[in-house]
Design a protein that fits this description.
Blueprint lengths: L9 E2 L3 E9 L3 E8 L4 E8 L7 H15 L9 E7 L2 E7 L3 E3 H8 L4 H20 L2 E2 L8 E4 L4 E3 L6 E2 L5 E2 L13 H4 L3 E2 L1 H17 L9 H10 L5 H4 L5 H10 L11 H12 L8 H23 L22 H44 L2 E3 L8 H10 L3 E2 L4 E3 L9 E5 L5 E3 L3 E7 L7 E2 L8 H10 L3 E7 L9 E5 L5 E2 L4 E7 L14 E3 L8 H10 L3 E8 L8 E5 L5 E3 L3 E7 L44 E8 L7 E8 L2 E9 L4 E8 L2 E8 L2 E9 L2
Parallel strand pairs: 15-19, 16-19, 21-24, 26-29
Antiparallel strand pairs: 1-2, 2-3, 3-4, 4-6, 5-6, 7-9, 8-11, 9-10, 12-13, 14-18, 17-19, 20-23, 22-24, 25-28, 27-29, 30-33, 31-32, 31-34, 34-35
Helix pairs in contact: 3-5, 3-9, 5-8, 8-9, 10-11
Amino acid sequence: MNSDNLLGMTLGNRYDMLEKIGTGGMAVVYKAKDTLLNRYVAIKLLRDSLEDEKSVVSNFIKEAQSSASLVHNNIVSVYDVGEEGGMNYMVMEYVDGITLKEYIKHKGALAWQEACDFAIQIGQGINEAHAINIIHRDIKPQNILITKDKILKVTDFGIARAVAGETTVVGGSALGSVHYISPEQARGGFTDARSDIYSLGVVLYEMLTGKVPFDGDSAVSVALMHLEKDPVNVKCVNMDIPTDLAYVTMKAISKEQGSRYQNVQELVDDLHAVLADEPLPSREEMYRQTLKEQQDTEDEFDTEEDDLNVPEISDYEDDEEIEPRGRTKRKTEVKKKNKKQKKEDRIAAVLAVSTIVVLMLIAAGIYLFLHMSKEAVVPDFSNMTIEQATEEAAKAGLKIADEIEYSLSDVVLENCVISQDPIAKKVVRKNSDVKLIVSIGSSGGNIAAPNVVNKTFEEAVTEIINAGLNYTVKEEMSEEVPDGHVIRQTPLAGTKLNKDDIINLHICRKNSGMPTSTPTGERVSVPSIVGLGREQAEATLQANGLSLGSVSRSASSAPEGTVISQSPEIGKTAPKGSFVSVVLSRGQDNPSQEQNPPANNQPSDNNAGQGSGQTGASNQGGGTGEGEKTTRTFTVKIPETANDTVDVEIVVNGRTIHKEVHSKSEGTVSIDLKGSGTAEVQAYIDGSKVSDRTINFD
């Protein structure tokens, strides 16, 4: 029997094989009909080439045993296991849906609420496995199935192990997928339940941003990144997510196991709190510790005050001896002189004690002002790590704000504080928040960030675009800066950046009627702004309750300065007041191409669907298809942020003529199109449109 060709056969006199629904390096999965219980099932079979590998067969059986002991709504159930004709198979719950990886490829970054819900479901399934000492060790979106009702189910416990204790040594092929493995898996160390938490954190990061935190040219390079490189804070990649959710995500993917959540339930509880907009349970202990330290300080002062003894003036007064009669005049004068001296000494002593008391009262007043009143002096957090700043803030009776802004810096070390608000030594109310801007290191670029602080928004944008950079906008209130002017910027002026790096602009908005960057909870439809000029696009967005976000430029046959793509796309919904990013045409890099080709004749079909390099454009009507054909090369650039492999789809006049998997290392994908007249050509990478052009063959 051949595991790749079982359609129409019956296994175990019970399971009718209907269709092949999945293939992998080790197994093949079929949809089948359980004739005994009259239900659809999924049957996973080992590939024929592996049946002689005893260790593989043993692991396959262990997977079935591990999975069969798990009964949970968020885990794919295993019903049966068997062997027939030399083939080992397991019978599983059939899930009519797609993988989470396919879902993310189709939608890109998910709404943070949906990502939270999905992570909770995955966490609940993993928690069930951990409860009986089973760790999965290969949590990734490809192993998460989504039903049509958006119920998520964890599957493929292929490298899971039932463990007697808390830890398991990684060995052999037990490593998970390289983009999702924990640092301890990458180094071949001890793994436990917290390794699954790391992988789930990476999946959450991908759901929130549409990409994994680490990607590279090879599996080895990615594994090294998990070991050595700190990921970019998820809040820097997606500014729309709540700060608490960013905290949860980054805690889950901490490199040190002790810094992560110690069990999945803690992670799930925090995610529930994020959805309910409540304080995170995991941070309550930190809050209690801070309050305890403040109380201990106040109690210490109370003790010192009780021990303070102030001398009374009466303690320095002596009873005067009565001088007997009959003494000589000289003796009387000496006595008067001595009496006067004693009086002066008493006065000096009283003044000295009074001075000491006054000084002590002043010191006590200062202590009271700083420690017992509602005021505090802001420490200088410059160049401190976040942990050090948090500790110093607690000592001063202050808090570090949950929302931390990250910025490139040439002079401040990575993960250290660049600047703060309020500034150092400022007196503020106790328990106030201090906002930090933290370094993510140097970009290694050669473009100096322009100084746009106090300039108008329009002036700032012009300078940024002319420098070859992009920008994002956040609106704030300010009493010192005029409306529509830049309050501050990150990275700071002079920081060396790479082309197309982003400068975050904090713009003063005093008109509350204008759209702001703070979502109101209301969602609005995203209008189409493709084809509009920048000013018209911005006006259209504002009319629909949205704002213009980051602006970049790309070569295009569209007129220079017009919008050639937008994110989110038309038809989607977004929080009212949120931003829409756009790409503007900078004209054609190749001057031989026309900028505004007429949209009349279309190329005729020639070698359609023949793969890369020689794929012809299709004729969907409207063109004559006659005369000499002209060849045009259509090139798609694979983004640097893409995964190791990408799905590239080329559509000409509504017809897909190329759909293949390409390696990121190729850099670009070029397709030769033959035809006459004009053709509308779109390119999609992993389901997202990356190019939309009109090709002129004349």
